[in-house]
Amino acid sequence: xxxxxxxxxxxxxxxxxxxxxxxxxxxxxxxxxxxxxxxxxxxxxxxxxxxxxxxxxxxxxxxxxxxxxxxxxxxxxxxxxxxxxxxxxxxxxxxxxxxxxxxxxxxxxxxxxxxxxxxxxxxxxxxxxxxxxxxxxxxxxxxxxxxxxxxxxxxxxxxxxxxxxxxxxxxxxxxxxxxxxxxxxxx
Length: 187
Hints:
Layout lengths: L12 H10 L5 E5 L2 E5 L4 H21 L2 E5 L16 E5 L16 E5 L5 H14 L5 E5 L4 E5 L7 E3 L2 E4 L8 E4 H6 L2
C-alpha cells in the first residue's frame, strides 16, 4: 500500500493580499494559478539593469500617449487567482490605475530580470501564465547570459537577442531599439 500523496495547498488572491498587509518587510508575494511564489529583494545589479531598461521603455511608450509603463512592486491581476509583479510592465493607457491596480486587466509587455531565486518560476510558471493570458510580449532579461529572451503568446521557443532588440507594438509608429549588449556592460 502506497503513501497518500500530499495535497498541494491552493492559495487565494485574498490570502496573499492579507499577508502583504500584515508584514510589509516580508519578501514579495506573487500568486499564479493558486501557487504562492515568494521572492527576496533583488540585487543591486538586477535593479540597475531593470531601471536602465525601464527608462528606455517608459520614455518610448509615453510618447505615444496610448500606453503607460511602470515598475514593480505592483499587484497585477490578470485573473482572479493570480497576482503577479513583473519587474517592468506596459499596459493600455485606458487602464490607468487610480487608487489600486485592479483597472489593469491586460498587459502589452511584461519584463522579468532573472535572479537566481526566480529563474525557474520566471522561465516556466510565469511565462506560461503570461502566454495563456495573451500578454503581447514577455521578455526574460538574463544578465548572466547577457541576453533577452522574447516570448510571444503562441511561441514554443523564444527569440534570443544579445546585441539588439526592436519592439514596435501596434500603437507605435516607430520601433524602440534597445542596445542589449550596452544594457549589460554599463551595469
